[in-house]
Amino acid sequence: RPTTDRPVLDTQTLWQKDKDHFIHPFTDFSVFHEEGCDLITDSEGIHVQDSRGNRFIDGIAGLWCVNVGHGRAEIGQAMADQATRMAYFSTFNNLSNAPAAELAAKLAELAPAHLNHIFYSCGGSAANDATIRLVHYYFNRLGKPEKKRILSRNNAYHGTTYLAATLTGIESNNWDFDTLDHLVTHLSEANCYRRPEGMSEAEYCDHLVREFEDTIAEVGADNIAAFIAEPIMGAGGVLVAPEGYHARMQAMCRANDILFIADEVVTGFGRLGHFFASEAVFDTRPDIINCAKGLSSGYAPLGATLISDEIYEVLGTPQRKGGVLSTGFTYSGHPVSCAAALKNIEIIEREGICENVREVGPYLEEQLRTLSHHATVGDVRGSHFMMCLENVADKITKELLPVEARVGDRVAFEAQQRGLIIRPVGHLNIVSPPLIWTRGTVDRVVAILDEALTAATASLRKDGYL
Ligand code: PLP
Which terminus has fewer CB within 10 Å in the chain: N or C? Predict the structure, then answer.
């Protein structure tokens, strides 16, 4: 679609307003105060465009979320239709709306068979936060009020509300922030690339299961409410656990009356080739699945907690005469967001987007692995449309480059100069594209990355880091 029919933006003024007033999340202010932000002004399909007219392939689906791609007019139309028919009304006190009801039924149909009850929120952090509150309430109702502790993992990312930030295990995310430490115990992440030397993957899995067992023994099963895990850890470095890990963790949870919560905020809605990865890919049946992001492909803010029949039986009865389930948000089940999600799901099904991921995903993995010959590429990992390059100083020792070398930034910068946006996270580069990439797109992207890595390596050499 030509961009000329769109209103012209006064980008210099916008840049200034943004710099003066918008507190950006996860932004380095030492750079921001000097340079401000690039404005992304237009998008279409797999591309986005900045205010200077530069067009890029979107290699990160916005932020792991624009799963069906950009510029879907039919999602915009569904939202506009709903906004003009009935933009908002309460879902408290026995009121509902059509898209929220339709979507709840659709999610129950798509999810593993025992997850039939949906609690809505406005994003992933809020979904995780609401879930922990509901889990505590559930155990209180069962007469087990001491079951409060949540087991999470180092390097997990579960969001930034107070509680979600506490679940999060990426240390730098909480620098100088407070956390609610009495509620959460962190276990080791499952990092096959950096597992202890000499351990096979199977032994490593045993090792992690033993640590889990020891933690249960130490904290006491009577004090533990739940274990929360991303099926593949995303922002923490796209870490794929050893074969059988999740199923074994779930078995241990079952045996100890601990709920198993899957945070599918990234892995849900097609990124691994299925609407939900828990059962289809990892052979687990979580008590609760959380989702957001790809649920609406980012066209509107929305999160959802998918709850088992067994838990709902408790949540769905009043705690006392006249009592209500007193938790939820003004925008729980927002009609415009739910309308966006319904159209998004219709597109995923109609266009066979999960099938595309199952077809193109292994090709993306294989082609990205051809980049392993570059001096800095220590590991290429991930699955399907959730991939990552780990940059190192030394491939044998896996030693990292110094932080000030900013290797992830360098690779991302060189890629962006060549028309591709990927995400730097410390020494990592993440590729988590819209799910409509074809084999042809993969070829273009890998050619760009090949050049970008060559250029980044040259600049690291020039600056004396290699
Ligand atoms: N959970 C996971 C696995 C995520 O990756 C994210 C965001 O990246 C969140 C939760 C938080 O979601 P949100 O940013 O929508 O609050």
Answer: N
